Amino acid sequence: MGLIYLDDIKPGMTLEKDLICPNGRFLLPSGSVLEEKHLKIARSWGITEAYIAGLDMETLKQAAEADISPESITLAEEVLSKQYKHADLTVPVMQEIYSINRLTLSRHIEAKGRDIIKPAPEYEEARLPKSFVKGQISAASIVEKEVGLASFPDIYYKIKDVLASPTSSASHMADVVEKDTSLSAKLLKIVNSAFYSFPSKIDSIRRAITIIGTKELGTLAVGISAIEAFKGIPTELTNMKIFWRHSITCGVFARLLGTYIEEVSTERLFVSGLLHDIGRLVIFRVLPDESAHTLYLSHKLNKPLCEIEFEVLGFDHAEVGSALLEKWKFPGQLVKNIKYHHHTRPIHTEASIVEIADCLAVAFGSPVASSHIVPSISMEVWDSLGISTSVIANVVSQSDRQITEIEDVFFR
Fold it and tell me: Residue 156 and residue 334: Cα distance in Å, rounded?
């Protein structure tokens, strides 16, 4: 007998224990022979695992690795040993993430060869400007200095006015959004993607608002509009396509994790993930030399960038990003999600979700590179969500198509 992930359960298997929904609702008794319809119902109720007679996780793990060569597994472990250097693998959720990462990377190597492992990028030594003195500049002052970032796209303020007005309706929101044809097109692409998986095509903003809600669509619109404010970042500082790919991946993971937790906004979680690293872009533009130095040290020392930023600058990109969102008068919860996505103290549920999503985005993002440093999740942060580690496998399996389709919205 063992606890088995729902994705590994096949029709014909027998329940060893009663199948209970996360909310405590009884679904099926022990001894039931599972059918496809039972598995579909279980998924719809948010069940991610069940006790199955005659099976356990270790048996399934051995079976999954049976067709993978020892050489591929060894290479995957070598890559991951660098990526997980700072991760606390005594924490169950980190053990789960590592285990899934090890298996998926081994399979990729087996299928495509060791060439899928990208070499670590070369960073020339970058020194701090002699004029820089730690403590003389703050996150808030950086935001104040960058005049170009102080002006948010007009569409945001129009959407904000609609959301704030007690007399506004869904029709008012549609009128505002439809006037921005580029924004409307992006929103409709997202609404019609695997992100929502609606059974039929949504062909208008008005219909989208009716289905997902005025506030929810407004939140998505704000996130998309924010990206427009960051065009023109010098390519020598960062690859913007890779930057936004990571951000989109974090947003998708945050939204998927949010579906397992009550009383959180999945749209706000997506936007939080999408914008979680915007503070890095502000630092790139205002302190390009200092930014180059922190990137150089992060790769040289194989330490998380946020730690290096604190050591060198006295603040990190999360603090800068939250200061920017405060200046733009973003909703308070969104500001918190950005501010605490690396340091969730005190515990904030949505910020914790973004922190975990960031970890997943690094672990399962692309390209595969040994230079990527997977941030660690503390026991306190994970336990605060009150969900099983089994949701990680489900979230990872659902993410690929969503990430690809959201990337298509922004890159094509």
Answer: 14
Task: In whole angstroms, give the CA distance from residue 262 to residue 74.
Answer: 40
Q: How far apart are CA 352 and CA 343, in angstroms?
A: 9
Distance CA 226, CA 270 (A): 13
pLDDT tens digit sequence for 82-127: 889 889 999 999 999 999 999 999 999 999 888 878 776 666 777 8
Q: How many residues does the chain have?
A: 412
pLDDT digit string, tens, across residues 351-407: 999 999 999 999 998 655 555 789 899 999 999 999 999 899 989 988 888 888 888
* Rounded Cα distance, 353 and 254, in Å: 6
As given in the structure block, the two tokens for residue 140 are 């808030």
pTM for the model stands at 0.85
Q: What token pair was written down for 293?
A: 């130095």
Distance in angstroms (rounded) separating the CA atoms of residues 278 and 280: 5
CA distance 267 to 258: 9
What average pLDDT does the segment 175-189 reach? 88
Q: Which domains does the chain have, with CATH numbers?
A: 2-58 (3.90.105.10), 67-147+234-412 (1.10.3210), 152-228 (no CATH)
For 151, list phi and psi in degrees, rounded to 5: -105, 110
Cα–Cα distance, 62 to 2 (Å, whole number): 14
In which element (H, E) is residue 227 found?
helix 214-228
Angle between helices 317-327 and 278-286 (to 10 degrees): 90
CA distance 51 to 31: 10
69: Cβ contacts below 8 Å, ≥ 6 apart:
110
Q: CA 204, 210, 216: angle at the middle one, nearest 5?
A: 100
Would you say 265 and 216 are in contact if contact means Cβ atoms under 8 Å apart? yes
Q: Which ranges in 9-91 belong to alpha helices (H)?
A: 36-44, 57-65, 70-83
R_g of the chain, CA atoms, integer Å? 23
Spatial separation of the C-alpha atoms in residues 40 and 256, rounded to whole Å: 18
Tell me the H-state helices in 192-265.
205-212, 214-228, 240-258
